[in-house]
Amino acid sequence: MIEPRCWIVVFGDPNIDGRDPVESGRYLLGAGYPSFDVQTGDKLLLYCTEDYLRYSRSVPGVGIVTSSTDAGIEYKWIAQAQPIIRRDVKRCLTEDERERFDHLNVKSNLVIEITTASLGRIEQLQKIDWT
Q1: In what order do the strands lie in the sheet with 111-114?
Q2: 2 burial class (0-12, 13-18, 19+ CB within 10 angstroms)?
Q3: How far apart (Å, rounded) are the C-alpha atoms in residues 31 and 47?
Q4: Shortest CA distance to 45 belongs to which of 18, 81, 80?
Q5: Domains of the chain, with CATH numbers?
Q6: Which distant-in-sequence residues (6+ apart) come within 8 Å of 28 by Cβ?
């Protein structure tokens, strides 16, 4: 069996341009966004930017990819008891992952693949319920 890959998926203000809210279970790519190789079963940390007022600068939930196309992905939304704050996420990432996470205004950084080791460090800080 292939090990699932791990990703940080970035959500901005859902009140702009018909963006989907993080809880929707859907992440559509906008015009000009690069495609990404997310597969069914991959694990997602669903990060909300500062503009997403309800969950500003945190990971309020995680997702398991249920399907993906060139247009976007669908996932099972799993709310977490406590959002994981940006500072905690960042300190668990590799140097390269941190660099991309620091530049979320670049379209290619809106979906960031992270290592299973980085995800493991995040899970050590806060238990993540993937069910």
Answers
A1: 26-28, 72-85, 58-69, 43-48, 6-11, 111-114
A2: exposed
A3: 20
A4: 80
A5: 6-125 (3.10.590.10)
A6: 20, 71, 72
Q: How many Å apart are CA 2 and CA 20, to the nearest integer?
A: 29
DSSP structure string for 7-23 = EEEEE--TTSTTPPPGG
The Cα 116–Cα 129 span in angstroms is 16
Strands 72-85 and 26-28: antiparallel
What distances in angstroms separate CA 82 from CA 31, 66, 78, 126, 130, one per listed residue?
33, 24, 12, 8, 14
Residue 123 structure tokens: 């899970």
Q: How many residues does the chain have?
A: 131
Tens digit of each residue's pLDDT (9 = 90 or more) over 95-123: 999 999 999 877 767 889 999 999 999 99
pLDDT in tens, 27-69: 988 777 767 889 999 999 999 999 999 999 999 999 999 999 8
Instruction: Tell me the C-alpha distance between 103 and 106, whole Å.
Output: 6
